[in-house]
Amino acid sequence: MRVVDIIAKKRDGLELTQAEIDFFVDGFTRGEITDYQAAAWAMTVYLRGMNEAETTALTLAMARSGSVLDLSSVAPRVLDKHSSGGVGDKVTLVVAPLIASLGLPFGKMSGRGLGFSGGTLDKLESIPGFRVTLNTDEFIAQLKHTNIVVSGQTHDLAPADGKLYALRDVTGTVGSLPLIASSIMSKKIAAGAQIILLDVKVGRGAFMKTETDAVALAELMVKIGNGVGRRVGAVISDMNQPLGNAVGNSLEVIEAIETLKGRGPADFVEHCLEACAEILLLAEVTRNHADARAQVESALNDGRALKKFAEWIDAQDGDARVVNDYSILPKASIIQDVRAPRDGYVAGVNAEEIGWTIVDLGGGRAKKADTIDYAVGAVFHRKIGERVARGDALLTLHANSHAKFQDAAKRLLAAYEFSDSKPTPPTLIHKVIR
Ligand code: URA
Q1: Would you say 411 and 116 are in contact if contact means Cβ atoms under 8 Å apart?
Q2: pLDDT confidence band for 302 (50 / 70 / 90)
């Protein structure tokens, strides 16, 4: 078999066989297929798509490119959640310790920033010392010991996804349903959790712009997960504006900790509580939604989740003093408000443009080897439906260069739409697939 023939076959819109997909994933993982061939292949998939059989084959091949963990020695059921990617999406930083603080093991393989969407691993790495590359023994030991672990792809955990993910980030090949489904589900299968909640984002700051596409992605991932014996549910959640107020790695860590201290933005708190409640229902910890909410609200309100967060950061060699001292996080040299140009209501925001602006400020990567500036980002002070007066601080921008500050301020302002009458704010959770 030759990789060039596989690329050409998909370029011509033909279906790849399981043997061809296995050959591609295996060769790419071992470094025999080059980055430029894999990037060309990803672009053909982006343009031509894949059917369900191909997507399932790709998922399983990527999951099996490293170890597939059997966590039955840790617990009868390990819980996990995964987002399809959004702007300001720091949900894992709150949901993971909340679930673990209820005594339920939470084990997750996460990703880095992807296109305009931020990544949990990059956010966690803004905490000094935090280690995201755990091998399988470390992953299992930490899960046993602290009930919570979040790792990235490594040479022995979903390495094929790790490599392809980094290429997709910088080659315009992110927003493809089969590539997203296989990327997410390969990590979920490899990391071994039996109960998985998928948080599929829809809207202007998501890869899926329509509810039809988001539901199709969710249903396909649920089917793939069920096919390998995992219990999988999904929420279709709104991403028409940044989730919470903060976008940018360190800033999102601060917002997540504030949330664990009971001072989070209303939309973000509500989203995290609902996600946790859905996880409890999926795991059959309870069959009653009100009871699920009561359990997670109590772990948030009595400080158990915050305590678990500190334990988790410490277990992965991060500096847990961050819980009480945000000054240990990278901080930008320029922090200034950007003001509203007119009176009115916020009618809409181009959330994708907000994501790209933060990437260009240094908060994401333009090339695979780029390093991230963890300090940069923005804190937004108005959500859709809220009133502003001309001159009010619309957002606070954190930058490390004057030129980048000016460019980002202009772009972020242009991303806002205003109206004279009050628009209806978007619904947070559009749909639940149980
Ligand atoms: N999250 C992933 O892990 N992969 C994607 O492709 C998108 C979101």
Answers
A1: no
A2: very high
